[in-house]
Amino acid sequence: MDGRAWRRFRKNKGALWGGMLVLSVTLVAALGPLLAPHDPDQQHRETLLSGDGSPVAPWSVPGHPLGADSLGRDELSRLLHGGAVSMQVAFFATALAVLLGVVVGALSGYFLGAFDFLSMRLVDVLLSTPFLLIAIAIQRVWDDPALWTLFVLLGLLSWTTLARVTRAKTMQVRALDYIQAARALGAGRMRILLRHVLPNVLGPVIVLGTTLVAQMIIVESAMSFLGLGVQPPQASWGSMLREGQELMDDAPRLMLFPAAFIVMTVFGFNLLGEGLRDAFDPKD
Amino acid sequence: MIAYIARRALFALFVVAAVVTGVFALMNAVGDPAAATLGPSAGPEQLADFNKKHGLDQPLAQQFLAYLGVVRCVRPSSPRWHTDPGQRGYCGLLQGDLGESFGHQEPVGNVILTRLPRTLLLGVLALGFELLLGITFGVLAARFRNTWLDTTIMGTAFLGISLPTYVTGPIFLLVLAFWYGWFPVGGYGVDPLDHVYHALLPAFTLAIFGAATYARVMRSEMIETLRSDYIRTARAKGLSTRTVTWQHAARNALLPIVTLMGLSMTILVAGAIITETIFAWPGMGSLAIQSIYNLDAPTVMGVVLVFSVTVQAGNLLADIAVAALDPRVRLGS
Predict the structure, then answer these.
(1) Is B274 left (phi over 0), alpha (psi -120 to 50) or beta?
(2) I need a labelling partner for B201 at 20 to 30 A (CA). Which of A97, A105, A198, B110 fits?
(3) Measured between beta carbons, which residues in chain B are less than 8 angstroms from residue A222?
(4) Domain assignment of residue A174, yes or no
(5) What are the pLDDT tens digits along chain A (284 aa)?
(6) What residues in B contact A131, CB-CB < 8 Å?
(7) How far is A39 from chain B (nearest CA, A)?
């Protein structure tokens, strides 16, 4: 980000709010497991479930400020651990998607030819498949889905837009005079790609990557909500939302807590992404 | 243009074929439908029986060819199969046959024919909400640019794109159905009017994201359009602001919405899967989840086929519609 972009970004109130939201949610996710007062998977059936089996309310039992979930597990600890899981999946999936998208896009845009043709057709195919359906199907047939299969899967399915944008930008930069000059000076292809092309695609990639985190949070939570993402007993915001919905009438908080975190995170990343877009590419 | 449409249709066909092949391999080679259908108590003999009955004991390539209808297939419930197990017919896609559901004990085609209209009802209602809200508020925001109205609408729209259906759906259910009782607590209803009544809340849930997106696009498109010369001319002629806004500018600003509508098929499909699950709406989306969960391969294949064709058709139709509406667009160049 150059100086002007940074100044535009700082002036953008929405972006700053988004950045703060993102920062605090990320902190919660990163430090959450350390701050969590209890084991998120341990069931305290005697102390945290009342006589009729319903979970205790917030503040009613000392040491459990947010009460318990339907199985008598400490709600606060589950929210903190769940956040770590959701953010981990979203970040790693995004990182994989960015890596794939930039590499494929830059190679396509720089070398063109058969590789470009094939990779862009692959992008077309991926972009026009029912994404969620395929992700769920793959996750279901996997025998023992671990966390890493989830983010590898999400990453592999969502690098497409990044590849398209990187490719377009690479083709644009490639035709500029100073690339010709660098080539005339004897710079190799790798050097040109890394030193001259890559810095130019960085802006759009950061913007897209930021909004992609929001999308990955949405997809991960959706899959966990449908019971085909993060597997129980492990908590994620999506699976907590699903479990909370079952007790919706008696204890709506079990649904509303994770829902609030999901919305806050997605909202934050979207705001930040929007702000970065305006900073990098001012239209007005 | 015809050549362009033909080329696009061919590509759409290719994508559908690729998806179908991929999902077929996934379901039948990686997953174990027999174990998923019969449950953990099934012994090895029952599993073998199941596989034999559904032709799952045959090589994967042959299963696939049979599914396509190129080679003869096994079909458990066909009368011929029961009377004379040795006799087999063609019963694949080429014959318009989607096979037999493992779980429902009936042809997948029939299951889909019952479910598809319900999802269409949901989708059409949702699309209606999206367009109505998106266009109206988008135009209003542009018309009253930089006022409190614009800020409110755009703020709400921004929140709208950050609200996943699995958050809004349960909250609507809780507040509007459980607490206030204005809407039914999920389900499908008994007669046509009742179906629509039951569909309102899920359709609205499904529509939030699209409506917010359309409002945002519509606003920026309108602002662009309102700057153009012909708008100034129209104003100079003395036409009222309302006429200029709605009849001259809004019409032209609609074009990107048409493209977005085509692309939004993927979102509607994904949304239907989640929304139908939340509201217990017995359509294609909940069928998709159920059948994937039970590894009911033929049903999954049917659902994937219908969804892929919908997405492809949406994209293609949007392209054609834009070309038809905007004489400046020449397809295929």
Answers:
(1) alpha
(2) B110
(3) 164, 166, 270, 274
(4) yes
(5) 567 777 877 787 878 888 999 999 899 888 888 887 778 877 776 676 776 767 777 777 677 777 777 777 888 888 888 888 889 999 999 999 999 999 999 999 988 889 999 998 888 888 777 788 888 888 888 766 778 888 898 999 899 989 999 998 888 888 888 888 888 888 888 888 888 888 888 888 988 999 999 999 999 999 888 888 888 788 888 889 888 888 877 888 888 899 999 999 999 999 998 888 888 775 54
(6) 266, 270
(7) 26
User: What is the spatial distance between Cα B259 and Cα A185, in angstroms, rounded to a whole number?
Assistant: 45
- ipTM field: 0.81
| pLDDT tens sequence across B270-326 | 788 899 999 999 999 999 998 988 888 889 999 989 988 888 888 888 888 877 777
Cβ–Cβ < 8 Å for A74, A44: yes
Domain count, chain A: 1
Q: Which of B298, B301, B269 is nearest to B286 (CA)?
A: B269
How much is the pLDDT for A282? Answer: 59
Our CA dihedral for B293, B297, B299, B301, rounded to 10 degrees, sits at 110
CATH number of the CATH domain containing A200: 1.10.3720.10
Token digits of residue A160:
């497409």
DSSP character at residue A56: P
C-alpha distance from B30 to closest chain A C-alpha (Å)? 6
Residue A79 lies in a domain: yes
Tokens of B64: 């696939």
The pair of three-digit structure tokens given for residue B294, joined into one six-digit string: 């039970």
Residue at A67 is within a domain: no
CB of B164 within 8 Å of any CB in chain A?
yes
Which run of H or of E encompasses A197? Answer: none
Mutant choice from B284, B292, B307 vs A, greatest count of A C-beta within 10 A: B292
Q: What is the domain extent for residue A109?
A: 3-33+72-280
Q: Which domains occur in chain B, in start order?
A: 2-95 (no CATH), 111-330 (1.10.3720.10)
**Does residue A85 lie within any of the structural domains?**
yes
pLDDT at A159: 92
CB contact under 8 A, A226 and B19: no
User: What pLDDT, on the 0 to 100 scale, is given for residue A216?
Assistant: 92
Chosen for mutation from B30, B162, B305, B316 (greatest number of chain A CBs closer than 10 Å) is B162
CB atoms within 10 A of CB B163: 21
CA distances from B135 to B106, B287, B322 (A): 43, 32, 17
The dihedrals phi and psi of A74, each to the nearest 5 degrees, come to -65, 120
Q: Residue A207, CB half-sphere, CA atoms under 13 Å: how many?
A: 19
A128, A225, A236, A237: best to mutate for the B interface, most B CBs within 10 A: A128
Instruction: Calculate the CA dihedral of residues A108, A109, A112, A117 and round it to 10 degrees.
Output: 50
Supply B75's token pair.
């079909």
**Amino acid identity, residue A157?**
L
Nearest by Cα to B64 from B92, B36, B34 = B92
Please, are residues A229 and A242 in contact by the beta-carbon 8 Å criterion? Answer: no
User: Which of B15, B293, B311 is opposite residue A140, by nearest beta carbon?
Assistant: B293
The alpha carbon of residue A26 is apart from the nearest alpha carbon of chain B, in Å, by 17
Question: Quick check: B313 contacting A, CB < 8 Å?
Answer: no
Instruction: Give pLDDT < 70 ranges for chain B.
Output: 74-89, 330-333
